[in-house]
Amino acid sequence: MSRHFALLPPETFKLSEEKENLFMIDSEHRDGLCFNSVAENYDRYRPGYSEALFHEIAAYAELPRGANVLEVGCGTGKATLPLLKLGCSVTALEPGDELASVARRNCAAFRELRLLPVRFEEYDGEGGPFDLICSATAFHWIPEETGYPKLSALLKTGGCAALFWNIRIPASGDPVLFERIQRVYRKYRPGSRPPETEGLSRYSSCLKAFARHGFQRIQTRVFRENFTASAEEYLGHLNTCSDHLALPPSIRLPFERELAEVINDSGGNVCVENRQELYLAERG
Q1: What pLDDT digit, counting tens, does each position of 206-240 carry?
Q2: In the 3-class helix/strand/coil scheme, how is 46-93 assigned residue by residue?
Q3: Please, is 127 exposed, middle or buried when counting C-beta atoms within 10 Å of its C-beta (0-12, 13-18, 19+)?
Q4: For a tag site, which of 40, 102, 110, 267 has the least CB within 10 Å?
């Protein structure tokens, strides 16, 4: 996958600009552990996060070197490694053993990592309170009534939460190819919605959740990066997504075949916009 990222300036969105982009997946896949079976491909095909995003977090939270950080759902370490490179001491929660194994490998050069095989909901707070709690493309798995009060309880007074997600938009700069890809989605997944190309995604619901649970100084930043993927790489990424993993083979296989045909007919590659939505809040 060609990852010649072109970082664009961050944008700030107001709370009133919340947008929803809900999708439904089978109940057996409403669990981040569905990624455990595809850990190596998750590490290979999922994009990481821009350096600017982590510097934004550090500046917002005024993190000292050696800051005590909790990461919720570290996966294969896509966000863990940048946090360690900032000089943070990281306690990372990851119940998936295969995902955790890859994360340990990726972060092997750092001794400031403690990786615990537990869910956030079951975590006893050992090592806290924290200067910062981060969660990268993971916090949507945790019910609001559990997750946000626990965020507040585990943070120091004045500590900060940083929740962020990758939203991938194929062919966002090519309306013809974008529509051809969406036509395949509509054929095989008629209940799904296309990704939002402007404004915020469904994850912006966390802004109101922060406010409901007493957080202050709530802010949003958006970073955009672009990468080029072949049909194989695009499908490799798709096969690390929970809603795609939930599809029965009778739908998933022809869906993938037609997507590959569309991309190959358009030159063999698709430019994918990776929009990174960062949501920041401070414990009052």
Answers
A1: 999 999 999 999 999 999 999 999 999 999 999 99
A2: CCCCCHHHHHHHHHHHCCCCCCEEEEECCCCCCCHHHHHHCCCEEEEE
A3: middle
A4: 267
Q: Tell me the two tokens of residue 271.
A: 């430019």
Looking at residue 32, its pLDDT comes to 52
Q: Give how far the C-alpha of residue 122 lies from the chain's centroid of Cα atoms, to the nearest Å.
A: 21
Distance between CA 126 and CA 129 in Å, rounded? 8
Kindly report the CA angle at 123 between 213 and 26, in degrees rounded to 5?
Answer: 80
For residues 140, 142, 143 and 147, what is the CA-based torsion angle, rounded to 10 degrees? -110
Q: Is 3.40.50.150 the CATH number for 15-283?
A: yes
Q: What are the tokens at 24?
A: 């439904």
Q: Which SS3 state, helix, strand or coil, does residue 10 take?
A: coil
The answer to whether 137 and 166 are in contact (CB under 8 A) is yes
Domains of the chain: which residue ranges?
A: 15-283
Contact between residue 194 and residue 179 where contact means Cβ atoms under 8 Å apart: no
